[in-house]
Amino acid sequence: MARQVTLKDVAREAHVSVATVSYIINNREDQKISEATRKKVLQIANLLGYTPNPVAKSLVTGRKDLIGIVYRLREFTPSRNLELFHFIDLLVKRLNRESCECLLLPADVTDITLKRVDSVITLGLPESEFAVLSDDCFVPILAVDMLVKNTWLFSRIYQDLPRLMKGAPDDALLVTEPYGNEDYDAFARSRFSPDMVLRPDECTPERVMGRPLVILGAPLALTVGPRSGSPDITVIASDPTAAFLPPDYRVVHADVREKVEVTARYVLDALNGKFELPHDRRV
Q1: What is the CATH number assigned to the segment(s) 7-50?
Q2: pLDDT mean by block of 10 residues, the chain; 283 residues
Q3: What CATH number belongs to 63-159+257-282?
Q4: For residues 71 and 68, what is the distance between their CA atoms, to the nearest angstrom?
Q5: Helix, strand, or coil here: 42?
């Protein structure tokens, strides 16, 4: 069994006194400590997996572990928004069964609220937004369907969309809405050359010319498929709207429940000071 990380361990790695670490961990405002030292100590505590005694923490705070779920909805990605909230709905229910409370945080309102949470799950943020958020957040951060930098510091879990699309015809066109994270978008489209990727509004019979389609998302397929002019449609589905697709569509189900389970496992381990799982996990 791994030894519990102590304040002394954090102090040694940060080259500060144990008292300084204690002041910072306990958010003592009566001590003059530079912002640079505060950030350094909190980052090292996060890396080492230091967690306060959970019983003492419960007595002090009077609450359960609080998970912040940071997401961004976009007006021009209605289908992706539906998939996102299906995942969030399942994830919140899963974490509630582990006595965790969840706080849904639109990406624009996180500045103050993030200081109250014990762990953060981010969804659909571009790299620039994630960099700003993570720079001033010193609890474990998990990125879902985001290929963020610094994988030694942040764990990332993402759907392996290229694997799910392997059975599609070689001449198929890909129809997709953006996922919000630039590198994950590039990963999702990696099987297709740029001229084979279409926006939903480009799916006209004149553009498709009867070629097979791969559509990312059942909600998107419900709006695009009938007017596309393609007789061969494969849909990568991750929410219940797949039940309403025409019977002649080829449906490949992304295992969103497995993604929820893996995400929950990572978060629970981080809350318990365990960081043994791979930092990069495809589902």
Answers
A1: 1.10.260.40
A2: 73 87 74 83 78 48 75 91 94 92 84 75 92 82 89 84 92 94 95 94 91 95 84 93 93 95 92 80 93
A3: 3.40.50.2300
A4: 10
A5: helix
